[in-house]
Amino acid sequence: MGFEVPRFSGLRGSTGYLEEVRLLPDTRRGQEICAQRRGGGADVKFQPNAFNALNYVLLLLFLLFFLLVLVSPAAFVKPDGMIRSLLSDEIGYALALSILTATCSTLISVVIGLPAAYALSRFNFPGKKVVEGFLDVPLSLPPVALGASLLIFFSKNPLGIFINENLVRFVFEVPGIIVAQFVVVSPITMKILKEVFDGIPVRYEWMARVLGYSHVEAFLYVVLPLAKHGVLAATLLSWAKALGEFGATMMLAGATRFKTETLPIALYLKLAEADLEGVAVIIYVLVTTACIVTIAARKFLTKVSMT
Description:
The protein has 307 residues and is mainly α. The protein has 14 helices and no strands. α4 packs across α14 (276-306), α9 packs antiparallel against α12 (247-253) and α11 (215-243) runs antiparallel to α14.
């Protein structure tokens, strides 16, 4: 005997999905399957069996492993040494430079990524698949390879040499950090923003156009307000990625103390001279920042999914 499908305001799916649900037996198990289909399993209670127990054990082992990895640096340093390293001029400079360059590269990525992601989401044009595939290439390449390519461009390519010598110096300079972070971060920014725009129905823009809005006004007053939480999440995640970028920065800007010394570069220099207190401080600064930013970004992404 079938059972009546409850009316949920957030129920997703098509007629085929509803028919599938109606065919489920009127049992507790059937209701659990419905809850799992609606909410990704969040409403299903734990069932004590070997399979679920194995999943929980593997999850706990995974979490314990990363917890031990993160806690291990603190076991070899004293609290007063960590505080002294945290208040040192070098780490203060590295922190300030990291915040500055990560903010600049993220803003550039968002400013360029917004229209680019909107175009990829809304328009069909020749070579669109090629462009989307091209954006995936930097995600699969090591940042060191991207940094080496930038170094070759600005030191061997005639156009790059002209830019580096007559406009802005990027090689072994602070602007090089921003460019390196931008190259690493921008594909991530564009992909997140494209997913955000894909989730906004085009009919909202059509309705705005019918009401007399121009294309620009429809984007500014309809699309952007709906995408604001996704844009904020993309900005936060891109900023966190830029803050921890090392490989491309190392290749293009180098590792000069009190010049191109970001937090990851400072970590590398501290590790090279076996300064474990400084290493631990930088690790926990980066980990704490990443946790805060990730939690905030997840909250914004949750709001996007509820829109």
